[in-house]
Structure formats: structure tokens, C-alpha cells
Write a structure and sequence with these properties.
The chain is α+β, with helices and mostly antiparallel strands and 153 residues long. The protein has five helices and four strands; from the N terminus they run ααβαββααβ. Strand 2 and strand 3 form a beta hairpin.
């Protein structure tokens, strides 16, 4: 039979080993979390990964459309017509959305994200975009304008 002193000594050793194991496991988890977002160091990265657009090259478009009084539906319909073909036919378009102001029902926006400026230039040369411009221009109270932007942060 073990004495109390031997029992406590054995229990202390087991507890120390468990604590060391838990500490090391915690350290491994912290280190893995730190490196989770870093790219792989392998030089055999897939071609797909290397072709993903970086934020530095991506182009963001902000376009504003303020409808003439009574022309809100016409502007909205014209905007809706270009969304599907843009999403389906243009691989350079990463995303595109239309928005309507909650404070001014005549105010609409397009926000889109492109792999680069060349992809957007290709987009605006498409016949359906030229048709859109001709259709929406008489329905708004300003000259058509878009803002091309890149990410700062």
C-alpha cells in the first residue's frame, strides 16, 4: 500500500505531465491560427490560386443614377436588365449589385467589382451596356458618370 507522501508525489507527477501537455497543445493551436491566413510556401501553387485577383488590381465601380420625377420604374427596370447578362457572360465581373436609396426613392446605384480595369473596359463595350446607356440617359437628371476606384484598406 502507498503512503500518503508517495500517493501525493505520484499525483503531482501526473498533474505536471497533463499541464505540460495542455500547454503544448495550446501553443500548437495558437501557432496554427497565426499561420492559417498565410499563403502556402510551396512553389507548386495551383494555377487557379495564382490567377485570383489581388485587391491591388481589382477595380471597384460606383455608378449613380438619379431618376427624373416619375421615371423611377424605368431606371430600375433598365438597371435590372443588365445584371443577369453581366453576371452570366462576363468572367471579369466578380460581383455586381444595384441599390436604391431608402431616403430618396429616385436615387439608384450600381456597385460592381472587377478583376481589373481591362475587364470593366470590356464590359462597357458590350452592346447590351451601350443599349442600357441609351435607355437610361433620358430617364435621369444628370450626365451618366461612374467612379472607378481601388481599395485603400
Amino acid at each position: 500500500m502507498l503512503s500518503t507522501k508517495e500517493f501525493v508525489g505520484g499525483l503531482f507527477m501526473i498533474t505536471s505531465k497533463c499541464l505540460r501537455f495542455c500547454f503544448l497543445l495550446g501553443a500548437v493551436i495558437v501557432v496554427s491560427q497565426l499561420f492559417q491566413g498565410l499563403p502556402a510556401a510551396s512553389s507548386t501553387a495551383s494555377r487557379e490560386d495564382s490567377q485570383k485577383p489581388s485587391n491591388e488590381r481589382q477595380l471597384f465601380i460606383f455608378a449613380r443614377f438619379h431618376a427624373l420625377p416619375g421615371q423611377e420604374k424605368g431606371v430600375e427596370d433598365a438597371l435590372r436588365k443588365i445584371i443577369a447578362p453581366t453576371r452570366q457572360q462576363e468572367p471579369g465581373c466578380l460581383e455586381i449589385h444595384i441599390f436604391r436609396s431608402i431616403k430618396d426613392a429616385r436615387l439608384f446605384y450600381i456597385h460592381s467589382r472587377w478583376v481589373d480595369e481591362a475587364a470593366f473596359d470590356h464590359h462597357i463595350s458590350q452592346p447590351y451596356i451601350k443599349q442600357f446607356a441609351e435607355e437610361v440617359e433620358p430617364l435621369v437628371d444628370h450626365k451618366l458618370d461612374t467612379t472607378r476606384a481601388t481599395v485603400i484598406e
